[in-house]
Write a structure and sequence with these properties.
14 helices; MFS; Benzoate transport
Length: 422
Amino acid sequence: MTTTPSTRTTTRAAGAGWVRPLCWSAVALEGFDLVVLGVVLPVLLRDPAWGLDPAGASVIVTAGLLGVMAGALAVGPLADVIGRRATMIATVAGFSVLTLACAFAPNPEVLGVLRFLAGLGLGGVLPVALALVAEYAPTGRGSSATTVLMTGYHVGAVATALLGILLIGPLGWPAMFIAGAIPAVILLPLLWARLPESAAFLERRGRSRDSSWRSGPSGHSGRAERRNPLATLFRDGLARPTIAFWIASFMGLLLVYGLNTWLPEIMRSAGYALGAALALLLVLNVGAILGLLLAGTVANRIGVRPATIAWFAAATLFLALLSIRLPGIGVYVSVLLAGIFVFSAQVLVYAYVSQLYPAEGRGTALGTASGVGRLGAIAGPILGGALLQAGVAYPWGFYAFAVVALLGAVAVAVVGRAPSPT
């Protein structure tokens, strides 16, 4: 059956209202799963049965992030070829089952393998969700639609920190992985029943079928051109922006994962109790939610490029200020301000990518930016672990993170004013 313009319009209208809440929920689950190690590591590092040190913990974190990188690089282009709806359902199901399995890991080696496998699904969720939300966003609201979507990540992170405070003491660290898997029981049926397919994907598939039917046995005249999605990233003046986005994403994700993985332990090394250290992780992600709501509005008004540069620059300042030990509530205010700018800077990179590339390559552009950026996500925990191992994470870790944010600002500036997508 050929997909006609009228049926594509009907499908789009019927499902549009579900795109943002369902994608937001999937990203929230991703946020929970990707931050949960930062919550359980302070416990595992002090469990004699596991025998972990910061270097060994970094290996577990790195294994998971390698999986995330592989998933992002593979799933983004795959979704542009086979469709985004099925891809989203498969990735959520995969990482939820494997996150549940982490609760029963008997040793660090098994936990590392399970985190790698879960990462394959986790890496695919974000580029698919970003591409769908960007496609269904109202005209002129693409930046705020992207930043609101990414509040889901930090709501999941806040939930992780809260549940860590509530569950780890009475139930132990495995309860955190069980809690992260349970919501999928509700989300997966909703994705199956309500998430629409990408309208752009349906249109391309319809054109391909129509032209193949019209071409007849010769198979030449009228056949739709099949383009390699990866080629979209390097033609029509997009090569320099593509490389610059990869660098900016590397820096942004280094900050996100470095801080979410090691902030509690860095603060513990500075003399804070476990409860206070976990509370600071919660405050960091509350700041991220506030920053995302603000960043999208600012980007809609002044443009996504200047907003992204400004956010990375502000992140540089407030990360450097975290090196100053403040009394009482001052440290919470300082961490809150850092969270406002650090995390939304990376999300503005995604918003910029979503607006710059054409629809047929948007999933690939987001997937590769996220996938290459995962090298930064791997480097962040390794950097934090190395500084902790050397005993200099506080305050030098915050200086190192500030330099990374500054490099992110430079990379976005290098993007320049590339041609708009057609």
